[in-house]
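Project standup — Tuesday

K.O.: blocked on the structure for the chain from last sprint. Re-posting the sequence here as requested.
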Amino acid sequence: MNKVQNAHTQSSQFYAIGLSYKKADAEIRGHFSVSAVAQEAILTQAKEEEIPGLVVISTCNRTELYGFASSATHLIKILCEHTQGTIKEFEEIAYIYEGDEAINHLFKVGTGLDSQILGDFEIIGQLKVGFKNAKSIGLVNPYMERLINSVIQASKRIKTETEISSGATSVSFAAVQYILARVPYVSDKNILLFGTGKIGRNTCENLVKHTKNEHITLINRTKSTAEKIAGKFNLLVKDYANIQSEIAQTDVLVVATGAQKPTINKSLIHSSKPLLILDLSIPKNVANDVTELSNVTLIHLDQLSKITDDTLKRRQSYIPKAERIIEEIREDFEAWLETRKFAPTIQALKNKLVQIQEKEVTTHRKKVVDFNEEQAEIISNRLIQKITNRFANHLREANGTSEQSIDLINTIFQLEQEKDV
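H.V.: unblocked you, prediction finished:
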């Protein structure tokens, strides 16, 4: 039985289950995309089914569940019940990590080492949101709280102590890099951005910064949202109802909406001039039928992420240092885990010594005239603390023999301890 399981319940194990850009294409990832409503439903069901801890993350590049369960199948079923994917489909392209491997995976994901573009730290924000949502419903136990905070700490250190995220390369930046490399005289072109979610906002910022283009138009289903963003960059906003006429005038269309089905298709395009469309959405928001038009070039974010440049090569040189930081923080986590493993024994020992203390004080109160009960309790409390500290230090330094020591202490003092759940 490994240390992860020992630190928790005898009937549950820590798992990381999910799918990512590595094996699942955009369409399949779309099937398992978890909306805010679906995430709440997953957490609620997990709570009802007495899962002790669960965190859900779903981004354009991955959907993952981290949590305790009697089996990975339990978590997979819950995920599939609240998404469009099936168990069979999941099993064909998914990964399942258990125990220490699950911990390793979470550290790699949270620190950007597993990102589609190396060093993209947007994922840590998603992890924090998933952590907050789980905590609000009571699905974060002490083990998971310590683990996720350790991952957040590792992410911060890697970001500040290495240059693995230098250049702010992300999906949105890769989109702008692609435009700069493929579109001549980009500062004179008409650019239309449809959708102003997180990726849309980041893309907008990168477009303004790197293209020096004054012909960028924003369209969003909720116009007020687009107007707030446009105000920051002094850009033009048009009504969603005008999207067809705006597409007819544009040279580059960037689609970054949160819709579950395609919002752009062949029927909306009525221009013969060259049109580059970048679809940064999961699920895909641009229908494949646009490629039937000879003047249209369609690029999806999966293709963008394959762009390698000097920035990414330089980032790879910082991977060893990032891994050393992770290892250092993992060791701290495992030391805490080891301490937590014998904490119930130390508490039970303390309780036993307090019982002995109470009996002795009661006996002496009856036998001894003018017995100073207060002073006796002060002295015996100090003795109890010294004894429990000595045992705790021994267990910390047991070097792999702490389980035998715990068994011996339990036997000698006939301890009764609560299960550490």
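K.O.: great, moving the ticket to review. Residues 7 and 341 are 5 Å apart (CA to CA). The radius of gyration is 28 Å.
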